[in-house]
Design a protein that fits this description.
The complex is a heterodimer of chains A (210) and B (373).
Chain A lengths: L1 H41 L1 H15 L3 H12 L3 H25 L3 H9 L4 H31 L12 H9 L3 H29 L9
Chain B lengths: L1 E10 L2 E11 L4 E5 L6 H8 L7 E6 L2 E2 L5 H6 L1 E4 L11 H5 L1 H5 L4 H14 L4 H4 L9 H13 L5 E5 L7 H18 L2 E6 L2 H7 L2 E6 L2 E6 L1 H6 L4 H12 L8 H4 L6 E3 L4 H11 L3 E5 L5 E6 H7 L16 E3 L4 H10 L4 E5 L5 E6 H13 L4
Parallel strand pairs in B: 3-8, 3-9, 6-7, 7-8, 11-12, 14-15
Antiparallel strand pairs in B: 1-2, 1-4, 4-5, 9-10, 12-13, 15-16
Classes of the chains: A mainly alpha (210), B alpha/beta (373).
Bound molecules: adenosine-5'-triphosphate (ATP) and magnesium ion (MG).
Chain lengths: 210, 373
């Protein structure tokens, strides 16, 4: 009881800040990844080399990356958002790219045969057919970003990480849980929302087929 | 209408089209035929620029297509691809309406076209137009594939084995329908098939290809009278075989939907399968698909246990015949044995199908009263 009296307001702010980081960076990451994924799928022979190089970035620990960005940009929310967006890119990029390459050549040929231009083929055939895979990528990105956003507190920029860090520093389990539980719930809710989104985006004819 | 001049296409080092030249007049029904891999699909795709040959020229309507805008060119040429290729993310109506939509037809026009076309192949608009391709049978999908190519009434239609997956009945209906349409709308059709009967029935002219070259281009009558080489003669003989009863083989009469199971399947699964399919015996096969024998529901009861695999029960040696065996011999065997059917085997001892007494009766009725199918 007294816990909420003391920390209630701060917790709510922290959740809002956390959510804000996640939504902004996933949105930015998603758009960038989608565009990159489409571009790379047009040049599969180069993409075979580019994709593994990009995946190396993925292995740089988040703390290092956010730390370096902090040195250059300083203690502003953009530091967090850029860092998180960069990490959000990869799962979507990979799934967009493979999803597009997995579209059976017969559909692309049929589309051409029907007099569809390359752009029409992309938007009306390839992307819809790749959409289940892209949505899966988006879900992964979102879930990861919720947990990575904890790092924001490391450079003093709030979010649920604040509770976790203070909790660890002061050996207060209540505070750790106050940071961890809402972020777990946030991950679950966001991934459910993405399922709902998928229901609108993934064409009906593909359900059950995948 | 369509003219090839010394067209040559290579994939890597292999020459797929070797100096092909021919001329197709407007309104002609041309059938491309030849063994698998001889370059039929490649020829077809060169016409709508899905494939670009290295050498030679192709003219459509007098225009050199290498100078045409491919997207515009393709909207004037209907195309039925060999793998059907209906878009799974679109409904049947959206699939059929694809080209008309590109050509800015109104919604109501598209609906009318879809409805008319679907009626033509006996598919109800109300029932199917809003379904997705995966909800249709292979044969129905193939029909829609043909309709999609016809939707914007293009003057030229290319069809790559469009009736491959159809049962003989539907195939015959659609063949008639295509011929009727072509005569009525004066379409130029280039049609690929493996089936010489189909070629003889449909074609104004047949182009016979082998190893990327045209062996003969002739009317069906000419080709029947003077086949240019042994391969063509062979193709012709195979197709005419079906009209001479003494040449019929077991394969011509068998049902290919006989239900077979691997030895390792459990007895319970097998009895369930029999119950579901309303059959009282199953064909048993080895892991390599070779035939073992048959097991009846009686054998299962005698065995007692329903646990374990079906392979534990000793199978019956049902009578068998080779797919190429004379049909009359197969019938004799069936008649003289006590078994309910003959199991027809391929050369490699895998199961090809079965001939039951019903198949036999149908065959006899056919010869007495004409085609019963
Ligand atoms: N994209 C490709 N790359 C390399 N080789 C190809 C390609 N497409 C076709 N080929 C080869 O070209 C030859 C002709 O192919 P094509 O598809 O035209 O044959 P087809 O007569 O249509 O055969 P089928 O009756 O089996 O459909 C074949 O040997 C095939 O393996
Ligand atoms: Mg082919």
């Amino acid at each position: 009881m007294s816990f909420f009296e003391t920390y209630g307001d701060r917790l709510i702010t922290a959740i809002q800040v956390h959510l804000c980081y996640v939504l902004t960076s996933v949105t930015i990451g998603f758009v960038v990844a989608l565009i990159l994924g489409i571009l790379l799928s047009r040049i599969p022979q180069y993409a075979k080399i580019i994709m593994p190089i990009l995946s190396i970035f993925q292995t740089i620990p988040g703390i290092v990356f956010i730390g370096v960005l902090f040195l250059y940009l300083g203690m502003i929310p953009a530091t967090v958002i850029i860092a998180l967006a960069v990490y959000a890119i990869f799962p979507v990029l990979k799934n967009t790219y493979t999803g597009l390459l997995d579209v059976k050549p017969e559909y692309i040929e049929a589309a051409k045969g029907c007099g569809m231009s390359p752009l029409q083929t992309l938007f009306e055939v390839e992307l819809p057919l790749a959409s289940p895979s892209i949505i899966t990528g988006l879900r992964m990105s979102t879930i990861y970003t919720v947990s990575w956003a904890v790092l924001a507190a490391m450079i003093g920029l709030g979010g649920l990480g604040e509770f976790i860090y203070i909790g660890i520093a002061s050996n207060n389990n209540e505070l750790i849980l106050a940071g961890a539980i809402p972020s777990a719930i946030m991950a679950i809710i966001l991934s459910l929302l993405i399922d709902v989104l998928g229901r609108f985006i993934i064409p009906k004819g593909l359900r059950g087929a995948k | 209408m369509i003219r090839f001049e010394n067209v040559k296409k290579k994939f890597g080092d292999t020459v797929v089209l070797n100096n092909i030249s021919f001329n197709i007049e407007p309104g002609e029904f041309i059938v491309l035929i030849g063994p698998s891999g001889c370059g039929k699909t490649t020829t077809l795709k060169s016409i709508n620029r899905l494939i670009t040959p290295e050498e030679g020229k192709i003219f459509v309507n007098g225009q050199d297509i290498s100078k045409a805008n491919p997207v515009k060119l393709r909207r004037k040429i209907g195309y039925v691809i060999q793998q059907i290729g209906l878009f799974p993310n679109m409904t049947i109506e959206q699939n059929i309406g694809l080209v008309p939509k590109r050509l800015k037809y109104s919604k109501s026009e598209i609906k009318k076209i879809t409805k008319d076309l679907m009626e033509m192949v006996d598919m109800s608009y109300d029932e199917y137009a809003h379904k997705y391709p995966t909800e249709l049978s292979g044969g129905q999908q193939q029909r829609i594939g043909v309709l999609r190519a016809l939707a914007a009434s293009p003057p030229i239609v290319l069809m790559d084995e469009p009736f491959g997956a159809l049962d003989p009945m539907t195939r015959a209906t659609l063949q008639e329908e295509i011929v009727r349409l072509q005569k009525k709308l004066k379409k130029t059709i280039v049609f690929v098939t493996h089936d010489m009967n189909e070629a003889l029935d449909l074609a104004d002219k047949i182009i016979f290809m082998e190893h990327g070259e045209i062996v003969q281009m002739a009317t069906p009558d000419e080709m029947l009278a003077n086949p240019a080489n042994d391969l063509i003669r062979d193709f012709m003989r195979k197709s005419s075989a079906t009209s001479d009863p003494s040449n019929l083989t077991a394969a011509d009469f068998m049902r290919t939907n006989a239900i077979s199971v691997y030895k390792k399947r459990s007895i319970r699964e097998c009895t369930d399968l029999m119950a579901r399919q309303h059959i009282d015996s199953l064909l048993i096969k080895n892991d390599d698909d070779t035939y073992v024998g048959i097991i009846t529901i009686k054998d299962v009861r005698k065995h007692g246990k329903s646990s374990g695999s079906i392979g534990e029960i000793i199978p019956n040696e049902n009578i068998t015949s080779d797919a190429g065996e004379n049909a009359k011999d197969a019938f004799d065997k069936l008649y003289n044995s006590g078994d309910n059917y003959v199991v027809v085997l391929n050369n490699d001892k895998t199961i090809a199908g079965i001939i039951s007494k019903t198949s036999m009766a149908t065959a006899m009725a056919d010869t007495l009263w004409g085609d019963m199918q």
